[in-house]
Amino acid sequence: MNNSYKNVMFVIADDWSRIAKCYGNDIIRTPHIDAFAERGVVFDHAF
Q: 19, 47, 27: which is closest to 37 by C-alpha?
């Protein structure tokens, strides 16, 4: 088995905006999304 493949999880939600702490918001708590962001990639701009 070739272990060079990586898992991909793409999270998208309607009206999400930038409310998560991984985007700099210190008021709204999103611990699970922040945990994913710490171990992965956060897109600042996507079209």
A: 19
Collapsing DSSP to helix, strand or coil, 12 comes out as coil
The answer to whether 18 and 25 are in contact (CB under 8 A) is yes
pLDDT for 24-43, tens place per residue?
888 988 898 889 888 888 87
CB within 8 A of 11, min separation 6: which ones? 33, 36
Per-residue pLDDT tens digits for 1-14: 567 877 887 777 77
User: Amino acid letter at 37?
Assistant: A
The number of beta carbons lying within 10 Å of the beta carbon of residue 20 is 19
